[in-house]
Amino acid sequence: MRNLLIFITKYNAFFLFLIFEIASLIIYVKYNSFQKASVINSTNQITGGLYARADELKGYLSLREVNDQLARENAALRNQLKSSKYVDTVARKTVIDTIYKQQYEYIAAKVINNSINKRNNYLTIDRGSRDGIEKGMGVINANGVVGKVAFVGEHLAIVQSLLHKDSRVSGMLAYNKEIGYLQWGDDMNPHKALLVDVSNNAQPKVGEPVLTSDLSLFPAGIPLGKVSRLKAKGTGFFLNLEVALAVNFSKLEYVDVVVNKFAKEQAALEGQEKKDE
């Protein structure tokens, strides 16, 4: 306290000048309408700018919460799609009773690790067995097919990316429904893949969409990409088509894991079929 008093006494002239200067400015602004309006306008601009920056910071800090909410809502909306249901049709004489029942469900997940520059690429998601994730489930995002679940822990799961030498997805041309298999090319381009073994009667067109077929583990009609180049196979009986992938794997943030309620039943039946061969 003593040091403060000594400091004020030493610089009392400066403090008196400062007090008189502030008082004169207040009187000058208060009793002159033009200067008063100018000060108010400048103050409003400054405070408005500060409020805008504070709002931007608040919005940025809440982005993760907003994205998580949007991902959950997106999964819920996918659950309501007609393509997520199967048709149970019972015919009795001339009466057909058609009821849509749920076949696919979707679990929203966040990508917490991802690779695109290897021959075999994987991504990690923040959902595991306690969330209902199982090995072999398909994974998609808002743009198209991402891959399938390869390894499952209690809290996390590893997804085999479409950018993997062993990834094969049954796909079809959107216009004539000709079926082939989508696989990643040997050139390791993260934006391209090949739709192979397409009948040469297909007559595909550059720019034609390529979608998942009924033979894949995904709901039919999920985008895989678009035909970017036509490539004839050596035998001439089949075509290999270069496909520009629908998903940008370098920017994956949120995905949906596809839960096919008939997957186990289908696997069991197909297992019996193989035993009989």
Automatic annotation (TrEMBL):
The chain crosses the membrane at residues 12-31. It comes from the Bacteria. GO terms for biological process: regulation of cell shape. GO terms for cellular component: plasma membrane. Pfam families: MreC (PF04085). Keywords: Cell shape, Membrane, Transmembrane, Transmembrane helix. Residues 111-258 form the Rod shape-determining protein MreC beta-barrel core domain. InterPro entries: Cell/Rod_1 (IPR042177), Cell/Rod_MreC_2 (IPR042175), MreC (IPR007221), MreC_beta-barrel_core (IPR055342). The keyword Membrane applies. Belongs to the MreC family. NCBIfam families: PRK13922.9-3. This is Cell shape-determining protein MreC. The lineage of its organism: Bacteria, Pseudomonadati, Bacteroidota, Sphingobacteriia, Sphingobacteriales. The gene is mreC.
